[in-house]
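To whoever is on call:

I kicked off a structure prediction for a single chain this morning and the downstream step that reads the tokens threw a length-mismatch warning. I double-checked the sequence; it's 379 residues and nothing unusual in it as far as I can see. Pasting both halves so you can look.
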Amino acid sequence: MNALDLSWLNVSKKGPTSNSMTKSEMLSYRKRAYWVSQLSGWAFFALLNITAISSFDKFSWQKLILTLYLSLTGISFTHILRNIIKRNGWLNYPLKKIAPRVLSACIIIGFSMFVLYLTANIESGLIKAGQFKIGPPLMGIVNLSSMVLLWALIYFSIHFFENYKRVEIESLVWEAAVKDFELKTLKSQLNPHFIFNALNSIRALVDEEPSSAQTAVTNLSNILRYTLKMERTETVSLEEEMQAVEDYLALESIRFEERLKYKIEIDPDTAKIEIPPLMIQTLVENGIKHGISKITEGGDIHISTMLEVSKLHIIIKNSGTLDEKSLQVSNGFGISNTKHRLHLIYNDEAVFSIKNTSKNEVTAEIIIPLGGENESYNN
């Protein structure tokens, strides 16, 4: 017996999931699916009964009519049960509340169906009143109640599966929306943070070194053009990121003069790998602000990349000393932003670390797993 509500099914690519379907078309589709399921399920029940009767007893047209009559009562009663379930919101009840209600309804329906079936048998003359014992009626009630219970189990199972899938999809959509919002929030923090520092650098040069200020404005315009692109994408190629970093370092070199030296070593195989925009630049800026700027004689910045076991390694070294104890409780912008963005994009697969690697050197390392399109750059 397969009399159940199949309103949740998507039977073809042009089914109810199509964006072109209106609400009325969706309702019409679900209604048709339900009735096709009801009719086909109870028709199969009738066929099984006819086959069983033919195997153990002489078959007649009266028995055929009575079997079809029983199936029609099954359709009617289960349809009424479906309306009761929907009207009273049983689908939203916990199991301990659903079970007694459904079991009671199935027994009542099974008893009612058997009474109608028995009455029809007596009226047709196939059974005479008083010629049967109590055993067969009890078995008949139990069998019919069991069939209705099977109908109810299938019905509730389908709706449970449908609701589970819907909740799962809604959860994934919500999670994606939250991540997208958080990433956009973090990127909106990057722009004013960087622009503020860059404008301060230019302001210091305007009166004393106008030509250097012009060069700085050119470098800044290149960076701003890059940040505009950042607003439209979650990742950029390492090559693009490093061009922005070079412009930034050139801008800072004008301000720091001989106090800032930098070296960039990029593995050619890593140039096209996609990374979060302004991630390297933020850490370089962090190294200059908290490391080199605090050293009277200045210091060095060394940036390198390499591929190792299908992972991109980005290493940024700068002169200075890191207070690792303070770092554990710090909410500094550059480091916290980097950790947060890596977690949002790569979950726990990306690794970020920053530590003292010598007496006057701090090393920050980002390890990004290569997947999807990035895998081709590791061949």
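Update from on-call: the warning came from a stale cache, not from the record. Cleared it. Sanity check on the structure: The mean pLDDT is 78.
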